[in-house]
Design a protein that fits this description.
The chain has helices at residues 3-16, 19-40, 45-63, 68-100, 111-125, 210-220, and strands spanning 108-110, 133-134, 140-141, 144-152, 163-172, 180-187, 192-195, 224-226, 231-236. It is α+β, with helices and mostly antiparallel strands. The protein has a seven-stranded mixed β-sheet. Strands 2-3 form a two-stranded antiparallel ribbon. The radius of gyration is 38 Å and the shape is elongated. The model has no long low-confidence stretch (mean pLDDT 77).
């Protein structure tokens, strides 16, 4: 039997037993499924048409809806929330305002100027409960001693680092809670930059004092630091006034 005759015999046999119809049906089903996946998939043409129609209907319905009754309820609810949380959030709002305000901050800030800002912070916040009262010139709390020292990180002889590091340490002899440390770094011969680890998240804003807000403003403005002084000391008079007692 020739090859042609053998092929014809096999085809006739498969046609008669339904094999050809089954294979055609299976592959046709696969082709249809593949086409539908492309049309109805995430980027399919039909999917885009359906999404467009849904948007048209929903936007129209939502735009024409009367929300006035819900606005009244929302206003009452927000008022009540503000009444309950006003005291807690007042500091957050004040600090947030300070951070967002457009202050005239110079591009370069001297370390001695930061020391002066810290002195004002000490005057406002120092704990006066352990301070003596001075009656010589009116009635006032005794002055507190404050210092600033700069410590430069020594480079190892074998180190090839192109960065230099230092820290400015602010200390109040009468109130350790006010002590603070500022890290400084510089690249090669470029100016010093401020490096402070202060949590400026919304939750933490209520706990930030004026001096930390000031440092965050400097950091946000990307100011450069001039180490014009490395050893400073001074006397600071507390802002708080004592109640006179002449017993």
């Amino acid at each position: 039997m020739s090859i042609e005759a053998a092929i014809k015999s096999v085809v006739d046999e498969k046609m008669n037993d339904g094999t050809i119809e089954r294979l055609v049906s299976e592959n046709l089903e696969k082709g249809i499924n593949s086409s539908l996946e492309k049309l109805l998939g995430k980027y399919g043409d039909i999917t885009e048409i359906i999404e467009k129609k849904i948007k048209e209907v929903m936007v129209g319905q939502l735009s024409s809806y009367d929300y006035s009754k819900y606005i009244v309820r929302l206003d009452a609810m927000l008022t009540e929330i503000l009444k309950r949380t006003a005291l807690d959030n007042k500091k957050i709002l004040e600090n947030f305002k300070e951070l967002m305000v457009d202050r005239d901050i110079p591009k370069v800030v001297k370390l001695s100027d930061i020391f002066e800002e810290w002195k004002r912070h000490v005057a406002r916040k120092v704990d006066t409960s352990k301070l003596e009262i001075d009656y010589n010139d009116g009635v006032a709390y005794e002055c507190v001693t404050v210092t600033m020292d700069v410590e430069r990180e020594e480079e190892r002889s074998w180190s090839s680092s192109i960065f230099k590091y230092a820290k400015a340490i602010f200390e109040c002899e009468n109130d350790d809670e006010l002590n603070f440390e500022i890290r400084l770094c510089k690249y090669r011969e470029y100016p010093w930059s401020l490096s402070v680890e202060i949590d400026d998240s919304i939750r933490s804003l209520r706990y930030l004092d004026d001096f930390k807000i000031y440092l965050l403003q400097l950091k946000q403005a990307d100011v450069k630091i001039e180490i014009d002084e490395e050893d400073l000391s001074d006397e600071v008079k507390p802002n708080k006034e004592p109640e006179a007692s002449f017993s």
